[in-house]
Known about the structure:
Blueprint lengths: L1 E8 L3 E4 H5 L6 H8 L3 E4 L5 H16 L9 E4 L10 H9 L5 E4 L5 H14 L5 E8 L19 E8 L4 E8 L6 E4 L15 E5 L1 H23 L8 E4 L4 H11 L10 H4 L6 H11 L8 E8 L3 E8 L1
Parallel strand pairs: 4-5, 4-6, 11-12
Antiparallel strand pairs: 1-7, 2-3, 6-7, 8-13, 9-10, 12-13
The chain binds coenzyme A.
Coenzyme A (COA) binds next to helix 2 and helix 6.
Amino acid sequence: MKIIGTGSALPKKVVTNDMLAEFLDTSDEWIVTRTGIKSRHVITDEHLEDLGAEAVLKALEMSGLQPSDIDFFVCSNVISEYVTPGLSCVIAEKVGLTCPMIDINCACPGFVYALDIVETYYQAGKIKTALIVCAEEPTRMASWQDRGTCILFGDGAGAAVLTAGDNMKGTLLHTEPDVYKIWQLQTLVETPFITKQEQNIPMQLKGREVFRFAVNSGTTQISQLLQDLGIALDEVSWILVHQANQRIIDSIVEYLGVPASKFPVNIADHGNTSSASCPILLDECNRKGMFKPGDIVVFSAFGAGLLSATSVMEW
Ligand code: COA
């Protein structure tokens, strides 16, 4: 498939590191040095489905397609106010989509998983167009008393419209099952029959171990996939990696030996927006006119699971 439209939407509230330092034992200096994050957009009165719908409508507008032209809709989301129906259906009702749709929870690599899913449907001859939205509110997962996690996250949504084309060159997906590196628990509705104990535990993060996994999986997968595809690193125009921590990105740059200028970043202003991070970055770069036909664009992301995913596309 081929991307012909992108869109993104962010909550209006911008929370700076200094604002966090008003209620947390932290500082702008610590956060910027350890993560590269200066501020993030945080949901206040917005509903996530409205941000998702806004991103979708912008992507559709750029593509020139109507909702009725879309054959398949994939929504990537970790948490939202809706348990059911899936967030895809909630967003679909807002924008007028009536095609088949699915929701995936592949944590931060959700966009890359979604690309792989739509390409597989396309290759199977089932669809000619697709729409992906990644809508995330990780600021509702972390404890705001936990300075080690809440400082990392921001909210937002990113979308992409795809149509027929042989631009997707390949994808690598990998799992190292290890639940207790990034996890969160929530209690479910009580029944007269429940005898087990359930707990509400906000997001827990083993930061250093996740950091190592991110650098290792990103570096290995990007090298491996390009090698499998017979594409040299210096033929790659852009590498869009999950925006989780500037130091993770810097380490991948260093290990791959690629100029940092090939790695667009927005972590400083957005923080980690989970699976929305890649499509938000994609949209911001696209609207600046950074991608030219024939450019080789790599997406690479990692997250809870632990999952990692990398794909290569020709623009
Ligand atoms: N402000 C000030 N001090 C903080 C702090 C904050 N916001 N957060 C943690 N600290 C403290 C810790 O309490 C610890 O203090 P101690 O040495 O007295 O115990 C010290 O800083 C070092 O903590 P540590 O967790 O080892 O720091 P780190 O260098 O590993 O950085 C992360 C922490 C979370 C920024 C980093 O590990 C990271 O980004 N990991 C990847 C996480 C990620 O991307 N997760 C999402 C994946 S999708």
